[in-house]
Amino acid sequence: MTRASLDKDPRDVAAMFDDVATKYDLTNDVLSMGQDRLWRRAVVKAVAAQPGERVLDIAAGTGTSSEPFADAGVEVVPADFSLGMLAVGNRRRPDLGFTAADAMRLPFADESFDVVTMSFGLRNVADTALALREFLRVTRPGGRLVVCEFSQPVNKAFRTVYNEYLMRSLPPIARKVSSNPESYVYLAESIQAWPNQRDLAQTILGAGWSDVAWRNLTGGIVALHRAVKPGGPVLVGDAGAVRTA
């Protein structure tokens, strides 16, 4: 079995996700106690895609995050660098255009999407800023970015309980339901090493995005970050702001 380390070598990360592909969605549902379904619905609402728009769903895995867009008549491109995940997704939804793609070197033309969204994948990229600049490159002026990622609970007492769950309870549960339980040790470690909400917002702003804002879900276990590519219609407000919403 393969597990990645926190240096996030792309080959190791891809191989790790290949290993967990067949039980990935089930394992996530169990480990999150069903909260992942609520988080996915929040992403769809934040993206607010309309028919006629084109959405890039990067780190789409088996396509669970892409299905709501396709079912609503929105053109969506599910992309991932794990061929194992793409194969499982293609068997589930052969109508979706699954595409092999590295977040740091996207195989898409400049300004070819109205929205780029990424759920629980940015944390696994070796160079976060580089990926965010690639997302900016393929987004049209005025287009949108929505990132859903694990973050830091805002309540100190809850944060302590949550960290105990990550390091003590999550691995034993993963051993019962996952095809590669060691990968979920990496999951726990990578969550703890990930920047908090404000720091990630500053990284997004530094990559060239504007109107950066975030909203906490489940007490800050997960955060939704949103941003806009400059150059579109002028909006009222502070285009360079980093704020909660």
SSE blueprint:
Blueprint: H1 10-20, H2 24-31, H3 35-47, E1 54-58, H4 67-71, E2 75-80, H5 83-92, E3 99-100, E4 113-119, H6 128-138, E5 139-150, H7 156-177, H8 182-193, H9 197-206, E6 210-217, E7 222-228, E8 242-244
Parallel strand pairs: 1-2, 1-4, 2-3, 4-5, 6-8
Antiparallel strand pairs: 5-7, 6-7
How would you summarize what this structure contains?
With 245 residues, this protein is of the alpha/beta class. It has 9 helices and 8 strands.
Give the strand tally: 8
Q: Which consecutive residue ranges, at least 5 long each, have pLDDT under 50?
A: 235-240
Shape: globular
Order of helices and strands: HHHEHEHEEHEHHHEEE
**SS content category:** alpha/beta
- SS element count, helices: 9
Strand order, sheet with most strands: 3-2-1-4-5-7-6-8
pLDDT averaged residue by residue? 84
Largest sheet, strands/sense/barrel: 8 strands, mixed
> Radius of gyration, rounded?
17 Å
**Proportion in β-strands:** 15-25%
Distance between the termini: 41 Å
- Helix fraction, binned, reads 40-55%
Q: What report would you give on this structure?
A:
There is one protein chain. With 245 residues, the protein is of the alpha/beta class. The chain has helices at 10-20, 24-31, 35-47, 67-71, 83-92, 128-138, 156-177, 182-193, 197-206, and strands at residues 54-58, 75-80, 99-100, 113-119, 139-150, 210-217, 222-228, 242-244. The protein has an 8-stranded mixed sheet, sandwiched between helices. Helix 2 runs antiparallel to helix 7 and helix 7 (156-177) packs antiparallel against helix 8 (182-193). The model is unreliable at 235-240 (pLDDT under 50).
